[in-house]
Structures are given as structure tokens and as C-alpha cells.
């Protein structure tokens, strides 16, 4: 892993924070042949040095140390890259002369990476993810301002002990709560239940609420490249049990059901879920709805099926937590407590 860009401009105020910027690719590093087009571009082709050069005012916010960790479209994110990224974040934050980390990321899986880092980073220092909905070559590209705001958030003492954060479109979100809600809009990220933590604009930021659930140093979770296999199965009209049976036969350790409404599971899937649980597969009921909570329903169906409920976590974040909990050796009887806590 090579350092590509380090700025230490003269004439800056003494004690300016030093922020590490880790680039992983994504639309923020995308290029298209036509500036009027915001689709049909190639993601992850612009290097971190060019991303930083496009935001010269960064030099008034922090001293920047930058590294290119990956150059991918985030739809292709993997646990192996998660492990590499988390290890590098933890190594940098352990250094006395690094005050925070910013990660440029694709929007497709940003919410999953943010939650994973929220649970596995072992530092009180800020970790801030940002991204863009328009490639760097587009008219009114949103990446440069998002990057400037992310560094501003990471450089602020107010961002310490907040876990992983997402700075996007002038808002600051918790990595646990944030989800992508639009395929095209520059305000694509929301925290449906609790709302944004605060805002950042023109070098100023304000937190209007803080993170309550345990995270970072308060969790037992570690990331590894060989996380237990957990898959997601949706419930819908006319669903069969074929997918559940095939995944169990393939040796999955956990299943997340993206249920309808309050995580309800089609009757056809219910027996498949019960059979999977009897074979030692941990099953989590989440919802495909997009907001709200999946509540534990006691004997029907959770005690009967042997299922765990996800609370406010969507299926994709539920998968992240279940993989980490299984990797930590959490017994099935304590899995509901894990979802209630984190």
C-alpha cells in the first residue's frame, strides 16, 4: 500500500489536524466521455491524487496523507477488501500523528462498509466515509464538496467517539443508520428512523444528536477475510423454499430473511426456516420495507421458527452484524441480545 499524496502546505495554523484519506474507487472516482451524462461511466478510475487536487481548499482544513487502497466499483466489494480496509484504518488511527480517517467509497455498498467499520474499528478517532452520485467528470459533480465536508468532519474534535460516520450532501449520518434511498439524487442517503446526526457546511458543523448504541471500542467484533457465509433470501408472493434449501445444503452459517411488512415470512418459507434453524443455521428476520422496526413476536413466529429479529437494521446491515457475531463465536441463544444491542 503506497502513499500517493501528502500535503503539508506552508503558512497553515499550527496544530492543523492530519487526516488520512483512503480511496477505494466508486463513482466519486468515476469518468465518463460526456460531461452531460451521469450514467454509463466507469467507476474507480480516478486516482486519489486527482481527487485531492480537485479540492484545493482541503489545505485550509487539514494536512492530508492519502493512500489508494482499491479502485473498484463498490458493487464488487468483498469481505477480503473489508478486512484490508479495516486493518489499514486501525493501523493509521493507532499513530499519534493521524487524527482521523476519511474513506472515499462507491455508493452501492457504502452503507454496509460503514456499518462494518462502525463495529470493527478500534479507536475513538473519527472515521468518515463519503461518496458521490455523479462521476468526477460530470457537470455539477458532487464528489469534491462531499470530500471537503468529510475531511472537515474528520478534523473536528466533535466527531470523536461517534463511530463510523457518513458525510454526504451536507449531512452527517451514523454508519449504523444510514441507507441509500435513491438511484440518482445527490441527496441519496438518509437515516430513516433516527435522522441525520447533524450537518456540515462552509467549514462549520453541528451535531444535533449523538450515537447511543455501542460501537468501535465497545464491541467484541473483529474483521477477517474469511467471515462465515451469510446469505439473504427475500419473502414475496408465491415464493418457494428452493433458495433456502439450496443455501443450507451449500453450508451457509446464517440466513437473513428480507420479509414483508414487519419481517413477516411467507408460509412456504416458514417451514424451510424452521428446518434450517434445526440444522444450526442462524436465521434473522428483517424487512424489505426500507424503514421501521422488526419486533420480536414471541411464540409466533420467532420461538417456533427459532429466528432472531433485526430491529431497525435492514437486511444488508443485518447480514454484516450476523457475520461478525458468528465470527466472534456468539452462541445462537445469545444472538437476539446481539441484535438488540448493536
From TrEMBL:
The keyword Zinc does not apply. The keyword ATP-binding does not apply. SMART domains: Asparaginase (SM00870). It comes from the Bacteria. Substrate binds at residues 74, 107-108. InterPro entries: AsnASE_II, Asp/glu_Ase-like_sf, Asparaginase/glutaminase-like, Asparaginase/glutaminase_AS1, Asparaginase/glutaminase_AS2, Asparaginase_C, L-asparaginase_C, L-asparaginase_N. The active site is at residues 27, 107. One of its GO terms (molecular function) is asparaginase activity. Keywords: Hydrolase. Residues 18-211 form the L-asparaginase N-terminal domain. Residues 230-339 form the Asparaginase/glutaminase C-terminal domain. One of its GO terms (biological process) is asparagine metabolic process. Belongs to the asparaginase 1 family. This is L-asparaginase II. It comes from Caballeronia sordidicola.
Amino acid at each position: 500500500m503506497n502513499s500517493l499524496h501528502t500535503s503539508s502546505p506552508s503558512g497553515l495554523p499550527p496544530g492543523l489536524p492530519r487526516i488520512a484519506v483512503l480511496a477505494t474507487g466508486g463513482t466519486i472516482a468515476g469518468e465518463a466521455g460526456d460531461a452531460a451524462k451521469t450514467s454509463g461511466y466507469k467507476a474507480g478510475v480516478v486516482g486519489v491524487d486527482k481527487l485531492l487536487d480537485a479540492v484545493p481548499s482541503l489545505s485550509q482544513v487539514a494536512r492530508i496523507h492519502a493512500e489508494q487502497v482499491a479502485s473498484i466499483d463498490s458493487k464488487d466489494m468483498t469481505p477480503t477488501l473489508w478486512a484490508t480496509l479495516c486493518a489499514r484504518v486501525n493501523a493509521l488511527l493507532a499513530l499519534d500523528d493521524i487524527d482521523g480517517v476519511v474513506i472515499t467509497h462507491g455508493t452501492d455498498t457504502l452503507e454496509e462498509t460503514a456499518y462494518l467499520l462502525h463495529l470493527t474499528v478500534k479507536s475513538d478517532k473519527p472515521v468518515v466515509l463519503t461518496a458521490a452520485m455523479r462521476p468526477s467528470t460530470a457537470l455539477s459533480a458532487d464528489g469534491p464538496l462531499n470530500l471537503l465536508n468529510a475531511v472537515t468532519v474528520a478534523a473536528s474534535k466533535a466527531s470523536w467517539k461517534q463511530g463510523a460516520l457518513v458525510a454526504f450532501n451536507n449531512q452527517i449520518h451514523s454508519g449504523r443508520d444510514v441507507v441509500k434511498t435513491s438511484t440518482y439524487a445527490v441527496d441519496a442517503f438518509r437515516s430513516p428512523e433516527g435522522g441525520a446526526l447533524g450537518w456540515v457546511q462552509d467549514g462549520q458543523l453541528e451535531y444535533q444528536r449523538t450515537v447511543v448504541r455501542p460501537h468501535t471500542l465497545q464491541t467484541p467484533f473483529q474483521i477477517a477475510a474469511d467471515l462465515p457465509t451469510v446469505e439473504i433470501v427475500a419473502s414475496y408472493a408465491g415464493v418457494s423454499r428452493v433458495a433456502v434449501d439450496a443455501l443450507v445444503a451449500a453450508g451457509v452459517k446464517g440466513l437473513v430473511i428480507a420479509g414483508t411488512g414487519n419481517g413477516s415470512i411467507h408460509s412456504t418459507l416458514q417451514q424451510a426456516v424452521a428446518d434450517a434453524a434445526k440444522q444450526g443455521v442462524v436465521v434473522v428476520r428483517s424487512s424489505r420495507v426500507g424503514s421501521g422496526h422488526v419486533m420480536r413476536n414471541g411464540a409466533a413466529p420467532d420461538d417456533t421458527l427459532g429466528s432472531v429479529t433485526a430491529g431497525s437494521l435492514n437486511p444488508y446491515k443485518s447480514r454484516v452484524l450476523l457475520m461478525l457475531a458468528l465470527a466472534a463465536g456468539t452462541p445462537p441463544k445469545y444472538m437476539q441480545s446481539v441484535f438488540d444491542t448493536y
